[in-house]
């Protein structure tokens, strides 16, 4: 092969290699820009959702006379689907309004004010009564990565954290403050018995109590009786799509 042919072939190889490198670089830049945009969109949604729920606290919550009070009239003006407010011993853990939608999909990606946002809204299972008088009322919320919504339920995997904050409270529009004592913290399948909300008789309910205590990560030394009313708080886990973290509390007082 002549030196001239070798030279031209070498130039063609370099030219092709340069084109391929340029294409790869362009693709990489596009992927980076799209990823950065999506990431920015996610964090913007987080920030917007956090601001909205902070504003709702400012609008509806007061602690006059050292008592936690909820202005449900103000909340209803914003969203008539509101059925309760939930908070924990330490309000920064969880402190949010609770709604009940037309189904269990409506509030997965819709905020209390009706905006499309992945933070969603904490909501009661559509098949439960909204007054929290069922034997087991199921309440759903997202585990957001910015520590909002039901994210901090994850901390109840630690028994010492549970010992520090064993209670949560549900406030209802009739003025009731319902105190719940947590008796079980478990990681379960999304088909778990924990999601049973109707019971044929006391024996069926006893079976539910036994199953939910048996699924607990540790012994809380709290055992509901057959006359108990339960609230099951449910959120997803970071490990498996078909697993859920459930925190179950039994009603202990109503003020």
UniProtKB/TrEMBL annotation:
InterPro entries: Sortase, Sortase_dom-sf, SrtB. Its EC number is 3.4.22.71. Pfam families: Sortase (PF04203). One of its GO terms (molecular function) is hydrolase activity. The keyword Membrane applies. Keywords: Hydrolase, Membrane, Transmembrane, Transmembrane helix. CDD domains: Sortase_B. SUPFAM superfamilies: Sortase. The chain crosses the membrane at residues 20-40. This is Class B sortase.
